[in-house]
Structure formats: structure tokens, C-alpha cells
Design a protein that fits this description.
2 copies of one chain form a homodimer. By secondary structure, chain A is an alpha/beta fold. Chain A has helices spanning 13-23, 29-40, 42-47, 50-57, 61-70, 76-90, 95-105, 114-135, 138-150, 163-175, 190-193, 213-224, 262-279, and strands spanning 154-158, 180-183, 202-207, 229-233, 246-249. A 5-stranded parallel sheet of chain A has the order 2-1-3-4-5, sandwiched between helices. In chain A, α12 links the parallel β3 (202-207) and β4 (229-233). In chain A, α10 packs parallel to α13 (262-279). The interface between A and B is large, with 70 and 71 residues. Chain A binds a DNA duplex (30 and 30 nucleotides) through residues 28-31, 49-51, 59-66, 75-77.
DNA sequence: ATGGCCTTAGAATAAACATTCCACGAAGTA
DNA sequence: TACTTCGTGGAATGTTTATTCTAAGGCCAT
């Protein structure tokens, strides 16, 4: 009779692995076969149906269900959830683990504590920087820098919540000796500010949901005038994607409390600095 | 074009993403809703049942199936396979190792490679966020939030390189319903913009070396008029320290290639959000 | 040997599921 | 206004899927 230690906490994949390993010697023949299969093919356990898993493990479907019950689960479906959690944990890089880690530490606990808020934003910022490194492709970076390098004047378009990024990019580019026009809509002269842009120039557009209407309006006009465009946005459905020469997609973190601008800021700065380095 | 044209091969997740984005404008209402949901929640698309996905996307199950067919698949099940492939593709992340690995080996040094620049800035940003969590004292946060909460109008002063931080803070505070005046010196009217500030208001000043002369000039004037001041700066010797009610000191990293604004941005956002939380 | 007990295979069953169908309604056209 | 087309919601449908049940097989102690 296999010991049923119910003190075990269901849920985490690692716990399940150890539990399977622990009970393994006590299992019956079939159950042991399944236990080994489960540890070696966690992905198939996560995605397959009972029949598929049974076939791959060369046992009967009913044996799979018995296996799940022997581990204390109500059935295969419940067990499968644990294997699926492993998949979802690994895909959006590590932020989930990191944040749940913080949550476990207690540092995250009450949102009414200002320090907890700081910890949260800082953590989200770090994670977004981390994923930025993963997502941005070298080729896009090179292409964007080429466009900027060839431009006589660089136009920067970022309104609403994205304006700080535009301001930062403008500041750095000017410090580095570039000719830059920031399209800030001052005096409601947004269109006029960009009136003299030509295909010999370049545009950097920054926009995140909710997309600023003026940005959405001006961007297509500018690309229609054959202005090469570099877009920094959060989705391929954003209004500044179509017609852009290079698109940097920086998706929002699912559970971000409030959009953090750190990743776009960092990318903007990279473009500016990379520009001067490659021209040396 | 950001990526290669629509060579339409089913199977890979990235292709599917672009295909969805491409067809998005032509879709009907419901289909567009689903398209957006699919791009934003690929994990749920991979693991959920039709009914679950439909509920989360707030559409009918039949609409989900129609969506799959519109993309050329036989049904939801076929489409789901593609989303599942994304899950299995990303196996073991282990980021911390990878990043420290990057740092250790030479790829960090070669500054002429744009991707190296990105890696460098992102890493510096992460480090600065980490140290921000350590340095900022709970008491200072609480005090600063109290001051902001008591203020009738919040004045934000950040010029030159610090302007993006000021802009971001202003944006978030206004979104949260605060009355905010940003002292941006537009039309060289810096002094006039702050003329009506009273002790019932509050000032947030942001300045980093090299300190903007206008900031250095205006700040003492305002504190002399008994305006409570919160300073975000990099040194206790900065011109916005003396007379401030709360000082957040965020020292520059010794070898930062170029100042990264991520830590100040993060702190500013914390102040704004913390303000609303404590008032609930 | 043989009776008791546990395990197993496979069919039976019930639940969950994806998919289809149809009627309704809105938007466009003559 | 009347007619057509297309999009949509919701129930009906038929299929897939997990689970349960039962009879039979193997093992061991007596």
C-alpha cells in the first residue's frame, strides 16, 4: 500500500517531481512505468490526452488515471494542470518566478506599503529590461542605426505617456551632435512641426497603448511621404507598425501594475549611443 | 517591412502572429477582438478550451472557431497546436546564469556591437534598480507621499537630462487625478510658471549632474517661499538638497556609460502610485 | 493445490468538448 | 421601403475525452 502523504502541497511542478520519485519504489508495475515516463516526458504529460499518453507510455488509459489518483489527485486532468504550469512558467521569461519569489518573501505583501510599491516597480523594471535583451534582434538594431545614421534630421514622435521617452531620446541625440526635431505638438502645431521632413530624414515613433490619437494620425502621413520610420511600440497591431522600416515590439508585462517606461527608455538610449559608436 | 513578407507557412508561432496582424484590419468586429486577445494571451490560447477562451475574450465560442477558420485552419484545435508549439519551444530559461554569463565573458566589452550596447544599458539599468530598492528608506517614502497628499497643487521641476523624469511623473500624477504643474521653462517663463506656488503646495525637484542652471536657480527661491520640497538627485552636494524636506539620493554608478534614467523614473512612479494607495 | 487479494485490460459510460446550424438583426443597396 | 448580404449569438449536435466498472489474470501464503 503506497503511503498517501497528503501533507504535500499540490501545485508546483518541482514538488510533484519529488513526490513521484519518493513513491516510485512503492508503486505497482504499471504505475512505475508511468512514473518514469512522466518524469522523462513532462511536456507530453502536459499537452497530451489520456489516450495519447497511454499509448506513448505503452499502458492502458485507465492506468494513467490510476496513477493520478495514486498521487492524490482527483484524476488525470488535475495532474495535468501541474505539468502545464511548468510550461507556462518557462515561457514568459522569468518574471513570474521572480515576482512570485518576491511575493513569497513577503516583501511584496501589502500594496499599501510604499516600499512594497517601490519593490514591485523596480522588479517589474528589471524583468522588462531582461526580456528586452531577449527580444530585440541584432538585425533590427543595426538596421535602425543605419537609418538614423543616414538621416539628415531625425524626427522624434512620442506623445502622451510615451513623451518622456521621446524627450530622453531627443536629449541624448542632441548631446551627441545630431540634428533632431521633437514632434511635441506644442501650440497644436504637430503637423507643421513635421512639414519639412523629407525621405532623406528619419522618424523615430514611440507609442504604447492607449495609443495617442495624434500619433496615430501623423505617423501614416509621414510614412506616406516616404520618411523611413523606426517604431517602438507594444504590439504589432499598433497604429505605428504599418509602413515602418523597423519595428521594436516591447510587449507589456501581463500583470504590470502600471506601464513602466524603463525598457523603451533603455532601447532609445541604445539607439542613440549605438549610432555614434558605429560611425567612428 | 519589419520582417519578411507573408510567406504563409502554417506551423510556426511567429508566422501566425504576423498573419494575424496582417489580416487584423480586414476582420469583422468580433474577429478583431479575438485577434487582439490571441496576440496578447498566447498562453491562454494554448491551454484553454474553446469555452474558456471565449469567456476570457468575452465572445461566443462559435466566434473562436470562426476565427480559426478565418486564418485557414480547420478549427480551433488546429490553431491551438500552433500556440502550443510556442510553449514547448521555450524549454529551460535560466536567465540569471545567462546574464551573469554575458557579464563574465567578453561580449559585454565590445562596445561597437549594438547588441552589446543594449545589453550593457539593460544590465546597468537592472543594477541601478536593484540598488534603488536597497537605498530608499521607507521613512522617506512615507514622508514624501504625505507631502504630496497634502499638497493642493504639485509642482514638478526637472530640466535638461532630467526632463523625461519630470514629464513621466507629471503624466502619471495627472492620470491619477492630481493637480500638477510642470515647470518646463516653456517660453523662458520658468519663474512665472512657479509664481503662484504657495506653502500649501509641494515641489518635486529632479536634478542630476551636470546640474541644470535654471533648476539650481529656481529651487532655492521656491524653498525660501516655504514650499515643501522633495528632491531626487545624485549627491548631497547637489543644489536641490539644501532646504528640501525629503531627499532621495540616487548616486550614479561609477562606470555608467551614460546616465540611465531608469531608477529615477521608477522612483517617481512609486511616489505617484503610492500616493493614491495610501489615500484609499 | 487453492483461496484471498491486488493488479490489470478493456469495454462501458458519462462528461466535456469543438463544431455546426439556424434564426435574428444590422448595414448596405436598389 | 423592400431586398440582400454579412456578422452574430446561442442552442443543438456529434465527437472526443476522461473516468468508472467488471471480469479475468497473476501472485503469494497457507
Amino acid at each position: 500500500m503506497p503511503t498517501k502523504a497528503n501533507a504535500r502541497q499540490h501545485g508546483t511542478y518541482e514538488n510533484l517531481r519529488h513526490e513521484i520519485a519518493r513513491q516510485h519504489p512503492d508503486f505497482s508495475d504499471r504505475l512505475r512505468v508511468i512514473a518514469e515516463f512522466a518524469l522523462e516526458h513532462p511536456t507530453e504529460m502536459a499537452l497530451g490526452t489520456v489516450a495519447e499518453v497511454a499509448q506513448r507510455a505503452k499502458v492502458q488509459p485507465s492506468a494513467i488515471v490510476r496513477f493520478a489518483r495514486a498521487l492524490g489527485y482527483g484524476g488525470f486532468t488535475e495532474l495535468q494542470q501541474v505539468f502545464r504550469s511548468r510550461l507556462v512558467a518557462s515561457v514568459p521569461p522569468s518574471y513570474k518566478e521572480r515576482i512570485t519569489g518576491l511575493r513569497r518573501d513577503g516583501r511584496f505583501q501589502d500594496a499599501n506599503n510604499p516600499q512594497a510599491v517601490l519593490t514591485r516597480f523596480a522588479s517589474e523594471g528589471m524583468v522588462s529590461l531582461e526580456s528586452l535583451q531577449d527580444r530585440v534582434r541584432q538585425a533590427d538594431l543595426v538596421r535602425a542605426i543605419e537609418l538614423l545614421g543616414a538621416a539628415e534630421t531625425i524626427y522624434v514622435l512620442g506623445l502622451g505617456g510615451s513623451f518622456p521617452v521621446a524627450a530622453h531620446l531627443t536629449y541624448v541625440l542632441r548631446k551627441l551632435g545630431r540634428r533632431v526635431v521633437i514632434l511635441d505638438g506644442l501650440g497644436s502645431a504637430l503637423g507643421d512641426q513635421a512639414a519639412s521632413a523629407t525621405p532623406a530624414d528619419a522618424l523615430v515613433a514611440i507609442s504604447f497603448r492607449v495609443y495617442n490619437p495624434d500619433t496615430a494620425r501623423l505617423f501614416p502621413e509621414l510614412v506616406a511621404r516616404r520618411l523611413p520610420a523606426i517604431s517602438i511600440t507594444d504590439s504589432l497591431l499598433s497604429p505605428i507598425v504599418e509602413g515602418a522600416s523597423v519595428v521594436f515590439e516591447i510587449p507589456d508585462m501581463p500583470e504590470a501594475a502600471l506601464r513602466t517606461m524603463v525598457a523603451p527608455m533603455c532601447l532609445a538610449q541604445t539607439l542613440a549611443v549605438g549610432l555614434t559608436l558605429t560611425l567612428d
